[in-house]
Amino acid sequence: MFKQMAVAAGMVVAVAASAISGAPAAHAAPDFDENFAITSDVPTLSDLDAQIRLLVGTPAPDWVKAAQLEGGNRAVIAPKMVYRIGFFRPPRGSSLVTGPETHEPDRHTAVINASRQGAPTIQINAEWRRIDGRWKVASKSLCNGIKTLGLPIPCNFG
């Protein structure tokens, strides 16, 4: 109980300090949309880019990330590890989804370009699958990313 009160008091102080300084309040709102979904017939590069940033550039909860992945909960470990390591998120890294693209009714491909300070840009040919009306990162694309980055994760969520 005391710990909860201390946390609440700390948040009040942070919000008050933020209001005085004009800086945005810490923890005012999450930096991700928990309801994010790509539901259009053809995903745009902007949609795909936002999805990748949600996966590897935010601290979104597992259930939010699982909803973006063909492998669901089994596959969350990959983007979660990439986020924790901080490879492709500011301030030292970034990612951008670009073409060339291909499109079929339930399959779409594009290129994920990921970079981090002091290292060359990595390009991953990625695939998305349309499952239950939502575009999700295909498990084989996660496996390609895991292999490319040399992460110690078994690719058994396909």
Automatic annotation (TrEMBL):
<dbReference type="Pfam" id="PF26580">
    <property type="entry name" value="Mtb12_C"/>
</dbReference>
<keyword id="KW-0732">Signal</keyword>
<comment type="similarity">
    <text>Belongs to the MTB12 family.</text>
</comment>
<feature type="domain" description="Low molecular weight antigen MTB12-like C-terminal">
    <location>
        <begin position="41"/>
        <end position="151"/>
    </location>
</feature>
<dbReference type="InterPro" id="IPR058644">
    <property type="entry name" value="Mtb12-like_C"/>
</dbReference>
<protein>
    <recommendedName>
        <fullName>Low molecular weight antigen MTB12-like C-terminal domain-containing protein</fullName>
    </recommendedName>
</protein>
<feature type="signal peptide">
    <location>
        <begin position="1"/>
        <end position="28"/>
    </location>
</feature>
